[in-house]
Amino acid sequence: MKVYIETYGCALNRADSALMRKLLVSAGHTIVDSIHEADAIIINTCTVRSDTEGRILRRLSEIRRLVKGRKIVIAGCMVSAQPYTIKSVIPEASLISPQNITRIVDVLESPITVHLITGDRDVSYLSGSVSDAIAAIPIAEGCIGDCSFCIVKIARRKLKSYNPKLIVNAVEEAIKQGAKEIELTAQDTASYGLDLGDTRLPDLVNAILENVRGEYMIRIGMANPDTINDILDGVIEVLKHPNVFKFLHIPLQSADDNVLKIMKRKYTYDEFKSIVLEVRRKIPGVTIATDIIVGHPGEDEEAFQRTVEAVKELKFDRVHLAQYTIRPRTEAAAMPQVPDPIKKRRSSILAKVIEGICLTINKEYAGAYAKCLITQRGFRGHLIGRTVNYRPVVIKINGKPLTDLRYLGKSVIVRIDEVTFYDLRGELQEIV
Hints:
The chain is an alpha/beta fold. Helix content is 35%, strand content 24%.
């Protein structure tokens, strides 16, 4: 059977699609790049935000019209969190949740419509997703949090960590496929191993470094403040390793302690701040990225200003800013809501602050020479490199963005001659 797979959402979803491709090919099926060539269509969904959900539902309606009579399977987080929403749009589709993804062959080959929604993830299967020179390797499913705004906890459910030997094997396989950047991904990488008892995130990173040969860099994915705190010394030590990017993504969400309490986040702003300052003290030049939600229920003007002041105080290198959106089946959905115009205004105010800070930080790199690992294609096919502290650099030759794919995976020296608030841009000097 010819199968087309379309994927939305995060690195975990991309890895799930990679696992489905692997299982389907092993069962004798063929993966195709065009929906028009396919006998069966798999849509791997995301439910983290309402705008993404709306786009997916519109796409499902379009697919239903395009592929009448062909097998349709809906996978991903919307299946776990909102199966009835999907069925209202495309009732003839089979459904398979992330917990059941290893049974994709059975679902695809079944002559009847199948709904596999409940159950636990089989963590004996693991496959990374390689794109350009980047491999996303899942290290765990689910989390131990209970955030009031989060629907992903409903979709991905309780924490289940992968065996470190499986992860090491997946990294080895990704490097054989040409990966140079290994992204360790999970809903919360710092919670890795809490269900295993004898292995935590620093142990896992060290196991990879000790057992996997080759030229590669590891990037540690998002880690929550409450779970990273008791392993912070170990995380700092692995971040010092030359094969690990000096980069930490640690979500703040809000700098107001009352809002954090409403969100059911398990830390205060001062506790968050102490983590950031400790990491910066011990790893000079480290890049700190964070997430912030504006307009969450309970956020008044005073609370919002605390977040603005926190951004100015901590001067994050990268901020993923989002306006709060209602997600079904979450506690925050039932709370009194901040009006949309206020959310938009706060988002605009904070975005300008963030852009100013990030531009100021990036200007410090102007004129400098930097070593970059070229790992991906960016906008319009322009090649992007990453510095040792994971800053994105648009690579140029003779003043024009580099697009030659033969440079993917190469380490180069560039001279930074242009900066924006988002990235650096540099002229290639030599390949190293």
